[in-house]
Amino acid sequence: MTTGTLITVAPTGAESAKADVPALPVTLDELVLTAKECEALGAAVIHVHIRDDQARPTLDQGRLRDTVAALRDSTDLIVQLSSGGAVTDPEADRLAVLDAGPDMASCTMGTVNFGDDVFLNRWEFIVDLHTRMQDRGIVPEYEIFDLGHLTSLQRLLGKHGLPAGGHVHVDFVMGVPGGMPASTEALVACRQAVRDLPEGTTFSATGIGRGTIPVMLASLSVGGHLRVGMEDTVTYAKGRPVESNMQLVARAVGFAQLAQRPPVTAAQARELLGLPA
Ligand code: KMH
Ligand code: ZN
């Protein structure tokens, strides 16, 4: 069992506008530079959403392939594409994300209200995503926005088997308006429910907005890993906008070191997540 901390950076997301958040990496060059700098600081996984020439979220197949290739050329980071996209993305486009051949892809374990929107994840769609990833050797990160999503994951694995590589890794996304709160109590409840999943299941956690720091500290204290980045928060501290993703990764690394659980390298993360070396 690793005692280190797996740090995932989620630098862009699909929700913030470049006009509102100028530091958001939206071009391929900005993304690659961010990836290199976050890797140097201690990130091991990059959770990727891409943008078009107008900085709008897109699941364009060519751009996704170019992005995977560029990140592999420039870094050793584990490339995790978002299959969640934006709330408006059709299921077919979200499934087609896998055609870009990432190491990992996200797989959200249920529908959730998402602010004023709905992030739709039908059971049949989840099964489709999970089985396609099994077929292609793409390792999922199961996104958990609510406690019941863990029950759905237990059902999924029971009916359709373990993911590629045989290791189960989940990410608690806490504090989305409509999902579970970004509280220590909710994280502990999730951590308890993880015990019903296959032995060795690992988890990371991220708190949205002001939940970032409490969730980070709570996750470290109960043996969890960390996801940070401008997808999840654009405010560093009260009244202080995030200057860059690197600022968030550096803070996470500092907390992990204080917790005596320093960041794992990308190579160690591959082993942890059941990815080929
Ligand atoms: N943008 C959200 C609707 C994922 O990347 O898989 C979905 C999301 C989760 O960010
Ligand atoms: Zn995402």
From TrEMBL:
- Pfam families documented for this protein: BKACE
Known cofactor(s): Zn(2+)
Quote the Gene3D superfamilies the UniProt record gives: Aldolase class I
Q: Which domain of life is it from?
A: Bacteria
Q: Which InterPro entries match?
A: Aldolase_TIM, BKACE
Alphabetical keyword list: Metal-binding, Transferase, Zinc
What's this protein's name? 3-keto-5-aminohexanoate cleavage protein
The organism encoding this protein is: Micromonospora zhanjiangensis
